[in-house]
């Protein structure tokens, strides 16, 4: 190789490496948590595919190896300040660690590294044809045909990925028995600036003039868009149901890019602002507030702060003291494992020890993995599609939102849950200035239900009611949707005077 050829080769390697490095630095700076929206995903995919083509054109097949590897290294270095299990250094932790990796780096690789790899092979093919056009004419070796087939399949996969990513989120119109749009109904996905951050609300109801119900999902980190779309239809007959994706969850998951704003105090402030938005928009003096699990913690604190906004507060899967609940549920799980002789579960619990945990991926093992808590028959209208992870696969969520909703379950939980450890309603909330209702599943974990039964009798309120749902566990609104809707109709009737 002549000196000129060597210089030319060096320049081509610099171009290939420089393109990958520049793209990684740019995306790592703009998207430290990876693509968080449809626009992010398609933009990153297009940029990475182009970088791959450049690398392949410059240095041939080596570009297919150099570009993704160099990109991944630089991208990880640039975003090193991002926190959360899906972006931190991967750790051992069983199924939950695998989940964090798949919905974090796995999705990043699918959207960025795969298109870059395919682009690099196309660039390499372009380079081969430019360098030896005659030799390639009529060439039909088995190896070449095989490479072309593989490249064609990979290119088709990337094209299908683009189509899937580009699908917009939408919620179906509410229709009558004949399939016609119900006059006066409302069905929309809207985005509102709440606390300076764009946040999403799904709003559905048979009549736009019905009382408004604001639903707060649990987690922290969960989205109820799919759950309420599937199990919330009975509620839509009597209410305009506003299902809010809180900061850093579901369709609002991009707020994780501002993780420092995801705090308990900000969550309360956001909930108040959402309630005020709904009051203004629907010309209501008060709205109904329903909180599930973590949403019930947020709901109580919000109703305590601004009782003037709410006609009633309803807790389902009511929380009282997160730290004590965790300790009691861990003890329940240990007792279950010993009683049933489940050695693997007992060893897993012994390995992590009792809460609290520094590794947030240990919490699901302690507070979600006990089979006993799920060993009951829910109501006949219960749908498994309303529970995680199936509730993420609804038309309201784009593909990026579906994946990032799963990652938010991990990252937003890790950000916010440690902030809840000092909460104890038995000490801090002895009075609410709104009618208060609790929907308690008869199969609720004792670690939660025992604390509800300690707190609720000591609470004073204009009125208070605790109702037990016999075919429910932690989420009566999902386990018995029709019964919960009937319960909410009763709440509406008993509190109607507060709406005016």
How do you describe this structure in short?
This protein has helices spanning 3-30, 38-59, 62-78, 94-131, 133-136, 142-166, 225-231, 233-236, 264-282, 294-305, 322-340, 343-352, 363-368, 399-416, 425-428, 446-455, 476-479, 481-495, and strands at 186-194, 197-205, 212-216, 240-244, 287-292, 310-316, 436-441, 464-469.
What does this structure look like?
By secondary structure, the chain is of the alpha/beta class. The chain folds into 2 domains: 3-166, no CATH class; 186-499, 3-Layer(aba) Sandwich (Rossmann fold). Helix content is 52%, strand content 11%. The chain has 18 helices and 8 strands. The chain has an 8-stranded mixed sheet with strand order 1-2-4-3-5-6-7-8, sandwiched between helices. The chain is globular and about 85 Å long. The mean pLDDT is 92.
Uncertain segments are none
Q: Going across the major beta sheet, what is the strand order?
A: 1-2-4-3-5-6-7-8
| Arithmetic mean pLDDT | 92
Number of helices: 18
Structural class, from helix and strand content? alpha/beta
The top level CATH class name of the largest domain: Alpha Beta
Query: Which superfamily, in CATH terms, is the homologous superfamily of the largest domain?
Result: Alpha/Beta hydrolase fold, catalytic domain
Number of domains: 2
Q: Report the β-strand fraction as a percent range.
A: 5-15%
Give the terminus-to-terminus CA distance. 88 Å
Gross geometry: globular
Shape-level CATH architecture of the largest domain? 3-Layer(aba) Sandwich
The biggest sheet, with number of strands, parallel, antiparallel or mixed sense and barrel status, is: 8 strands, mixed
What is the fold-level CATH name, i.e. the topology of the largest domain?
Rossmann fold
């Amino acid at each position: 190789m002549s000196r000129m050829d060597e210089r030319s080769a060096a320049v081509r390697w610099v171009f290939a490496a420089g393109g990958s490095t520049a793209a990684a630095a740019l995306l790592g700076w703009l998207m430290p948590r990876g693509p968080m929206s449809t626009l992010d995903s398609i933009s990153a995919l297009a940029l990475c595919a182009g970088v791959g083509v450049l690398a392949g054109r410059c240095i041939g097949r080596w570009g297919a190896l150099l570009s993704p590897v160099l990109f991944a290294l630089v991208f990880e270095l640039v975003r090193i300040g991002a926190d959360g299990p899906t972006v931190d250094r991967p750790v051992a932790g069983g199924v939950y660690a695998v989940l964090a990796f798949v919905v974090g780096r796995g999705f990043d690789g699918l959207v960025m590294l795969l298109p870059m790899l395919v682009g690099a092979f196309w660039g390499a093919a372009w380079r081969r044809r430019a360098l030896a056009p005659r030799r390639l004419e009529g060439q039909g070796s088995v190896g070449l045909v095989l490479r072309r087939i593989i490249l064609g399949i990979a290119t088709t996969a990337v094209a299908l990925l683009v189509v899937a990513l580009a699908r917009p989120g939408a919620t179906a119109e509410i229709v009558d028995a004949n399939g016609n749009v119900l006059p006066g109904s409302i069905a929309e996905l809207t985005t509102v600036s709440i606390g300076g951050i764009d946040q999403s609300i799904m709003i559905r109801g048979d009549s736009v003039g019905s009382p408004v119900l604001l639903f707060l999902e649990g987690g922290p980190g969960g989205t109820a868009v799919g759950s309420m779309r599937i199990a919330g239809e009975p509620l839509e007959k009597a209410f305009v149901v506003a299902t809010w994706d809180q900061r850093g969850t579901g369709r609002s998951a991009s707020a994780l890019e501002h993780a420092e704003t995801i705090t308990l105090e900000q969550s309360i402030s956001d909930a108040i602002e959402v309630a005020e938005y709904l009051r203004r928009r629907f010309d209501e003096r008060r709205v109904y507030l329903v909180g599930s699990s973590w949403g019930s913690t947020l709901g109580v604190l919000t109703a305590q702060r601004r009782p003037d906004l709410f006609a009633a507060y309803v807790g389902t899967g009511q929380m009282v003291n997160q730290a004590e609940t965790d300790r009691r549920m861990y003890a329940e799980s240990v007792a279950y494992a010993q009683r049933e002789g489940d050695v693997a579960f007992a060893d897993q619990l012994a390995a992590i020890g009792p809460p609290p945990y520094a590794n947030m991926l240990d919490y699901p093992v302690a507070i979600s993995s006990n089979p006993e808590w799920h060993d009951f028959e829910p109501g006949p209208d219960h749908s498994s599609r309303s529970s995680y992870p199936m509730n993420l696969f609804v038309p309201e969520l784009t593909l990026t939102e579906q994946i990032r909703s799963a990652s938010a379950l991990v990252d937003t939980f890790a950000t916010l849950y440690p902030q809840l450890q000092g909460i104890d309603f038995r000490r801090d909330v002895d009075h609410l200035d709104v009618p208060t209702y609790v929907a308690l599943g008869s199969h609720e974990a004792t670690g939660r239900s025992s604390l509800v039964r300690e707190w609720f009798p000591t609470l004073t309120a204009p009125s208070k009611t605790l109702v037990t749902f016999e075919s429910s566990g932690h989420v009566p609104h999902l386990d018995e949707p029709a019964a919960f809707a009937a319960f909410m109709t009763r709440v509406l009737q008993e509190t109607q005077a507060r709406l005016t």
